[in-house]
Each structure stands twice: as structure tokens, then as C-alpha cells.
Amino acid sequence: MEPKYPKRIQFAHLPTPVEPMSRLSKHLGGPDLYIKRDDQTGLATGGNKSRKLEFLIAEALAQGADHVITTGAPQSNHCRQTAAAAARSGLGCSVVLRGQAPEEVTGNYLLDDLLGAHIYWTGNREGKEVIAEVEKQLQTMGHKPYIIPLGGSNVVGATGYVLAMKELTEQLAQEKLNIDFIVFASSSGGTQAGIVLGAQVYGFTGSVLGISVDHAADTLQTLVGALATATATHLGLEQSPLLDHVVVNDDYLGDGYAMVSDLEKEAIRMVAQKEGILLDPVYTGRAMGGLIDLIRWGAFTRGQKVLFWHTGGTAALPAFANSLL
Ligand SMILES: Cc1ncc(COP(=O)(O)O)c(C=O)c1O
Q1: Tens digit of pLDDT for each residue in 271-306?
Q2: Which of 11, 75, 111, 181 has CA atoms 20 to 30 A from the CA of 201?
Q3: Confidence bin at 1 (pLDDT 50/70/90)
Q4: How much distance in Å is there from the Cα of 140 to the middle of ligand 1?
């Protein structure tokens, strides 16, 4: 059954390329590695949020909104891409960032500002509280704000990755490429929920593995399973519950969210120096570090094909210079 996709605004650069990583594969001596370049989707550098925002911004406009509000970490890629999508669509944008304003204005925080977003810091307060305050303030001024959740991870945003699986399965069919595993960074769950549902809808027969960036595996699995099933309903699909299709590895949480360790540092340098591709310190560096570790442990056999889905984030690199050098 074909999903009933709601209206979307096409501002991502699609399809993103699928490329072999021959030098990295040879260096590691394990499976054949490929990469899907969602770091090249555009919207102020690129990343996985472009696909989600195509549907989220379309819904905001359909509801008559003139402003979007969203939230994230100080170096949130999601907030930066939302600010870009809002600018591109003529909408105002407010971002509520966790914690205190850092002294140095760099990375995504700098880009949020350049893109014209109004930036609010939560300090010690709950993000929800600050979002509600910003929403009220905007309404008092006669605006119609539309709230995009953390990471754009609701049924509307996850739809972007259901459609991405259509794109990927078409590319694989065209290239006659049989991928055994798709591996990527998973955090607020929208990307994984969309990929898991899209895998069912478009008949992808390999395995889908989310490397958790910040949640225990059972927590993220439950969240992704529920979101994937709800996204199916949103798209008018009769789909049995998807929880059993959600596989999460939480072995690489290290010292916590955005805490850069040798795992990320090695992965970032290795992929940069073998393939000329930049990863990010928080998400893709951690997920690739996990993949490299799994390869070293012999989790894949030679001849298997593993696709790493690059979800972006490189705009954050300058903000982590001190922990990367
Ligand atoms: C670069 C990057 N990769 C992966 C993710 C994880 O995606 P999701 O939140 O949909 O699980 C994020 C989320 O913020 C991200 O910024």
C-alpha cells in the first residue's frame, strides 16, 4: 500500500548520493562500506532535518502560521536547519536553546544568529516553560506560531524519512546494490522511525541499526516503535506494530550527550583522512565510532555491505575544536 503523503515543500537537495567508501573499507578490512550523503541536503550546510522540515514547514504554512518555534541543545543542528527553512519560507523563527549562552558565538549557534532566529536560553528552567512563554508573547503581538518538537521528531517530521527510504530503495535497485545493514545515529527517534517504517513499505530486506547517541536502548526502542506505528497511521497505512523492527545499540553513550571521547575523535579523523568526508562530533562521529568498533569485533562478515547514513551535523565542528585537537 502506498503512503498518502501530505503536502511537502521541496527545499532539500535530493536524491542525496550513495557512494562507496572503498579506502575506509580496505583500511578496516571488514564489510564493504557505503555512505548516503544526507550531510549534503542543503539548508545552511545540510543534515537529516531538511527531509523532516519539508513536511513540517508545509504543515505550518497550511495552518496559516507566520512563525516557527523549536528547541534543542546549544549546538542543535535541528535548530539551525529550522532557522534556515523558516528564512527560506518567509517565516519568523524562535529557537529555545538548553542552558546558558556560551561566551563564544560559534558553530550552529553562530548560524542560528546569521539566519535571523530569535535565540532564547533556558538557563535552569524547563524548555517547555520557555517555549510556552515565547509562544504566548508571539500571540500577544498578533503572530501565529507553529511549534516544532525537539529534533522535528513527530509523525509529520518522521514522514521525511519514510520518503527517504523510497529514494534509497530506488537508488539501490538502480545500482543493483544489496545492502545488508543500514547504520546511523539515533537520538530523538524521528529518523529511525521513518527509516523503519519506510523499510517495511518499500520492501528493504536488510537490517536497520540505530546507534543511540543519548538514550538507553529500551527507552529509545519504545519511543521509535511508537513513533513509527503512529507515522504509519498518519500516512493512512494499515501497519502492524513496528516495535520488533526497531534495533538500537546503546554501547557508545560514553560520558553522555556531546561529550567527545577517543571514539568520536578516531572516527572523525579516520573518515576525513580515508574518504575526505567530514563527520560531526556529537552524532555521526559517535555512530561511526560505534560502527568501526562493531567491525573490529567481527559483527559483520567480509562481503557484507553496510550503508552508513550520514545525517549531517558538521556545522557544529568549530564549536568542538578544543576537544577534537
Ligand atoms: C547530525 C544529526 N544526526 C542524527 C541526529 C539524530 O536524529 P533523530 O533526532 O531523528 O534521531 C541528529 C538529531 O539532532 C543530528 O543533528
Answers
A1: 999 999 999 999 999 999 999 999 999 999 999 999
A2: 11
A3: confident
A4: 33
Q: Cell 550520514 appears where?
A: 310
Q: Which residues line ligand 1 (CB under 6 A)?
A: 47-48, 77-78, 151, 153, 185-192, 280, 283-284, 311-313
pTM, entire model = 0.98
Contact 250, 256 (CB under 8 A): no
Query: Using CA atoms, how far apart are residues 290 and 283, in angstroms rounded to an integer?
Result: 11
Q: What's the gap in Å between 151 CA and the centre of ligand 1?
A: 7
Burial status of residue 176 (CB atoms within 10 A of its CB: 0-12, 13-18, 19 or more): exposed
CA distance linking residue 263 with residue 276, whole number of Å: 19
The residues near 7 (Cβ < 8 Å, ≥ 6 apart) are 58, 59, 62
Please give the grid coordinates belonging to residue 139: 500571540
Please give the pLDDT value at position 215: 98
